[in-house]
## 1
Amino acid sequence: MAKVIWITGASSGFGMAVALQLLKQRKHVVCVSARRAHLLEMLVRKGAHAYPLDITETADIGKVQEAIEADHGPIDAVLVNAGFGVYGPIEEVPEEAVRRQFEVNVFGAVETVRSVLPSMRREKRGRIVLTSSSAAHVSSAGMGYYAATKHSIKAIGTALRQEVGELGIDVVMVEPGVVKTAFGQVALEENYMAPKVPDYQNQMDDLKTFMLRAFERAPEVDHTRDIMIKALIEEHVKPVYRTTRGSLALGFMSRLFPARMYDAIVKQAIGRLH
Ligand SMILES: NC(=O)c1ccc[n+]([C@@H]2O[C@H](COP(=O)([O-])OP(=O)(O)OC[C@H]3O[C@@H](n4cnc5c(N)ncnc54)[C@H](OP(=O)(O)O)[C@@H]3O)[C@@H](O)[C@H]2O)c1
């Protein structure tokens, strides 16, 4: 039977790549959400069903879930993927930008999850795939708020896995490192908070140079996309997938090194590129 799959953040990057690949399989009902409805049109032409949604309008999330289920039946799997990064020093990122970072990456994700749980519990089956990040394990200067949102996703996803595992619902966290999507441009241009306090200037310059190079050299979406699809549709899945070498290494480093040594290694790695 065709699975009904809902993907948030489908107008770009991982979400769009997963939707396109699933549509090629012609086996599933693919429902796609994002703010920029016009970017979903290409997916609709290929057979997707579009449900435009600004994930910060949390009251709308349940309406989209209800509309999908009214149109296609119970949602079998959801890719909770909409997200972005704000880069800037802890002291300087304006409160409004911090709130927005959490509204999209955490509250939006949580409400998406909560919207699908009643019907998944009723059906005694379901798959919740959370797009997490290597930043769920590590944090560094200039990326503290983004990392905080992904640490939150890890904590919430871990609790959820324990709460709903025995109800027939699988929770899977996918943790990419840096991958070529629009994420870099959104974080390093649109949401980059250039420091006004001179004390932070060098660190932020270092971070920007480091991240620009990292995105230039980053892998394409294919491998992470394939892992996300596996997490959405295969019968047996793992609770966590780290999809890039960077995310494997960072997770390992954060467990291996004491805090000050970890700080020194990260600072040296970021500064070395100058
Ligand atoms: N690329 C990486 O290096 C990387 C690494 C680790 C984790 N991630 C995570 O991967 C996920 C997807 O990002 P991506 O790399 O594919 O970046 P992307 O190409 O920029 O895509 C981000 C998606 O999120 C959606 N989104 C952002 N704000 C939204 C809002 N308020 N309401 C609804 N949708 C919203 C965007 O759609 P609209 O703007 O049209 O709304 C877009 O479809 C994010 O959770 C990100 O944190 C990315």
## 2
Amino acid sequence: MLWSLFKILLFVALVAALAYGVQWVLSLSADATIRFNDVEYVLPPLVLIVGALALMLVLWVIFKLTGLLIATLKFINGDDTALGAYFDRNRERKGYAALSDSLIALASGEAREAAAKAQKAEKYLNRPEVTTLIVAQASEAAGETARATEAWKTLVTHDRTRFVGVRGLMRQKLEAGDTETAMKLAEKAFALKPRHVETQDTLLRLQARDENWDGARRVLSAKLKSGDMPKDVYKRREAVLSLADARNQLADGNADKARAEILEANRLSPELVPAAVMAARLHIESGEKRRAAKVLKAARLKTPHPDLAAAFAEIEPGETPDARIKRFQPFLKVAPQASESKLLETELYLAAEDFPGARRALGKLYETEPTTRSLTLMAAIERGEGGSEAVVRGWLAKAISAPRGPQWICDTCGTVHADWLPVCTSCEAFDSLSWTAAPVGATPASLPSEMMPLLMGPTRADVPEAEVPEVLAEDIALVEDTKPQTPRPHDDSVVVVELDEKVGDAPAMSVGDAPGVSIDDVGTTRDVGSTATPPRN
Ligand SMILES: [Zn+2]
């Protein structure tokens, strides 16, 4: 508004100045005198000024005509392209002007304008790799998918722009959710430029999603060759691929091939927990107990995972709980400071019904790291030592709302997975799962759903209502009518504590979920003995 007003004022001022100037020139009495061939011309000042302007115009025309004349002469002398080049220069200038307008429009977010200018530039310049590219990008930004597709397809037909065109089409297909076509285009793009990081990643993701492990291996080695992947990451990913393939082979019944893949995965990445567990089981099967123990200890060094302890327990399925505590000592020493070691030792003592030992092993972990597992173990210790029902239930109530501790969590999207997988089920990222605790605040405050049917025990008359924390009362009500279930095997993240009416009985600890094992007063199942029933004292 202000700007328009200013422009009007400026225009008025200019007109006024011009009128004043003309009047001033007219008022000058001195005339210019030009002598030419002994004839004197007397020119008034105004005529002189107009004459000067006219002379400049004539000179410009002569300049232009000379250019054309030179081009024509060259053409007559046999230079066929001279005339064309003269006119081309003009077209080129207009073309580049339109092109720069188009780029500026694209950069300032005016996609439609950019596309229009790029098409104009295309008419003047015969440079489709530049102009079509801008048309494609501008159309995409403006949401004109059909026009963008046309442009990408045009780019595919030129040698220089083939990769850009394929990549553009691939991204369009990915966005549209057509992963099958996207995969084919990604393979084409990969063939054109094997070192292109984005293409490698996209292809790897799509192949992992489709469980095309062989294809993924090719991409992975290309990534290593292009130097944008550290050797250790490469080895780990190779291991993940081998393991993923092994799972497929197992599902298809190819035990021998699966075996080779598992051992290869463990060789490539000794710290990969699922590979170590599977490899250890293979060694146990073939009677190589020492090798199994070695493999499990090597993995435990990096990640003290309960599955490793479970497999370590499987090495000697028939041992007594006391013998197991003794045999586990070197295994515990692999990561003596890890919370997992304290929890594991506590569970071993509980299995041996050595409750003071269990309390010693747990230490202050229920305070420093109050997780569902550590607090449930505390409840089991209290129960074992004959603590009151109120105290035991108090610990259980805390356990319900406590963080879950480490889980398989996707580094990319944060999704929690019950078991290790090569590809995240949520974001389809490859090799993105780490055994780690969920960030604070991400843990649901409610009882994990899988724990619901496992936490048994009706509300008791001998426990005053006020002493039953509200959250527990609700959960008990939820599960009260549920038939007691056998704890699920291989549930590594849930410690199951079952309570029944036999308060005051000698508490017993059960490590194992094999049929025939009775869960007496407090039963805790861990993977530590999930495949075996140790003799009970
Ligand atoms: Zn994810």
## 3
Amino acid sequence: MSSSNLDVSDYSADSTSSQTKRKRILVVGGTGQTGKHVVLQLLQRRHNVRAIVRSKERLYNQLDTVLPDSASNIHIVGRLQTTEASIHAMPQEELEKIVDGCDAVVVCLGHNLNFRGLFLPPRRLVTDSVQKLCSAIDVVNSNALEGKKPPTKMIVMGSDGVADPLGGDDRRKLSERVTLSLLSRLLIPHADNEAAASYMSSVSSVVPTSRMEWLVLRPTDLVNGSATKYDMFDKPTKGLFDGTKGGKTTRATVAQCMIDFVLTDELWESWKGKFPVVHDSMGGDVIVK
Ligand SMILES: NC(=O)c1ccc[n+]([C@@H]2O[C@H](COP(=O)([O-])OP(=O)(O)OC[C@H]3O[C@@H](n4cnc5c(N)ncnc54)[C@H](OP(=O)(O)O)[C@@H]3O)[C@@H](O)[C@H]2O)c1
């Protein structure tokens, strides 16, 4: 495990009042197709980022795929603190140290789409990692002076193929229910995302909301491209087999949306404790290239 740290904490150039204070955000899964956008967009907006990654080199390479030479730009990566570890196997005390001082935790973990990622352990990568993170937040914030620290925001990336465990979704067609039931049994990543959503739906009975608030963001079909304006729904609005014609969202938009949740308290208040679904707005303007 290794880490590099350039700690800068003052105020960012963001304009709205709830966004003016520079935040510190832990991103897990930052080397992924979505996580890299979260890391880069946060850094570009001059927030401090902690990232737990299995390979710092891979993280830097991924940042460069979004914005060439960003990984060698001290104005961007100067606020990035990386820890090389597999979060799944990380000692809990190490995790607590990394969580300590963070305003929010963003989880973009997912199983790699190869034989190892699909069929071999850790089968509960997302669920176990989320559980560890919630415990770490609980411990760290229970040590903080009561009332002095706002609850840490925990955002987990899921999918609109995963049902709201609180029962808020419309009943799907029989063919979709059969397919999803098969996926739960046969596909470890899908079962893991379901288990993680289920865990989050009842986490408030384990971690008091005075210490942690949460939401699970469920993107619809993911595509690559620039971030655009987006629409948020309280449940899936399209069928399982509709494809991108029923709605899609870019990974950069998903990143933007998660960052908006971190920075905009009004938005957070509307959606915390829920499982919002995000789509790119039809014909929406590009907001981040
Ligand atoms: N709504 C949709 O249509 C949709 C589509 C795709 C995904 N999703 C969900 O969204 C989430 C993120 O998707 P994505 O496509 O951005 O993910 P991704 O590109 O596959 O990235 C996965 C991330 O998880 C990390 N990871 C994988 N196995 C790990 C392990 N054993 N230990 C530690 N880290 C590990 C990877 O790190 P390394 O770089 O080290 O491997 C990477 O950072 C997933 O949960 C996925 O199920 C939703």
## 4
Amino acid sequence: MLCTPFFFKVLIVVQRKDTVLSRLIKDRIRSEGSMTFREFMAVCLYDPTHGFYTQGPSIGSPEGPFDTNVKFPAFAFALAQAVKQVDDILGANTRILELGGGTGQLGKSIVNFLGGQRNYVVVDLSSGLRVRQNEAGLQTVEDLMQVPSGPTVVFGNEILDALPVHKVMGIGQGNVLEFFVDLDEDGELFEILQPPSTPALQAKLNELHISLGRGQVGEVCLELRSVFQKLGSIVDPGYLIFIDYGDTASNLYSFQRRNGTLRSYYRQHQIYDFFYAPGEQDLTADVDFTAVSHEAQAVGFDGGTLLSQGSWLTNLGIHSYAKDEKALAVIEHEVNVLTKATQLGSAFDVLIFQTKGLPVGPGIGDATEPVKISHRLPSSPTVSIDTPGNRRLHLKW
Ligand SMILES: C[S@@+](CC[C@H](N)C(=O)[O-])C[C@H]1O[C@@H](n2cnc3c(N)ncnc32)[C@H](O)[C@@H]1O
């Protein structure tokens, strides 16, 4: 979601909503005991009936929960240029696979920009969103394993940030406890710390050389492994292109983000209570691009080039979208929002992989400074950026 301070107001609430899903979660905790934060997040987002995504939210519309890059047609235009570059390498009409297609708006626009006839498949866990994607004229499946192997370019705009994560806290000497969701004496949802639910959590942190300090909170996404194993078996040959907010592990698990990155959104507002309205609020965490690269490389993908959304869209020729003189001002504004470092250009990064033997992916070739993920230096806590008015802004995160 467009999660910079420019786009979100903060909603502070005292009274939680009594949603159907909150009642179901409480019943389950009463009968089965506490659940991991990961299970809570998975139920909130993907419960087969009451999950936030299952209900098919109107992402990108004024009454919807949040906006994404997809709101801007120029974004689809740039992605269509990426597909054309892939076609030049893999052959005309290479299959496009979109992971987490939202309302189907992106797929529909990309197909239109490519001339209307395209082998385009959306993989989406959400039954409600698959209905919307079908209405947009797109072919959908629920699971990657339903897709046969073949030459493919995969896009995922803000899918990785929607995968459920385990939430952990450092307790010294590299060890962690895990956050679970339980009921307090008033019967309200709250978080408690317990020994990890699975040794895979500590193993993942060790693999990434992450040692959380005492009291430092972080998230771990174990879901990535199965997603990439499936991608490894069906993308043959092809490219994976992920657009998302996140950082490399060394930055993500740093002192600057000592409270972790989990966030929640409710009707275009950021909300600080994860238990405010289960099933009606979104939950999301920054993507660990290092962990993503490990999983991609483990199943045989090469690359792992990380560059800012602004650089990538510019390399793809997004500025040539503004052709029609009449619409020029509107389009220029749209392109600026997507590419300027002060707006979304640096809020999102693009991470690209290719199967072995293929040239690097679209939009990288002319990049001034594509950054290999393993060589990316930790960023300083304070960065200076140029604003359009040539003022210098200091952002802290
Ligand atoms: C934040 S939304 C982004 C939607 C759209 N790409 C956009 O940018 O507007 C996340 C999307 O990923 C889907 N999703 C989450 N986990 C998934 C999974 N494991 N497999 C397929 N789709 C998934 C959700 O249902 C939803 O469509």
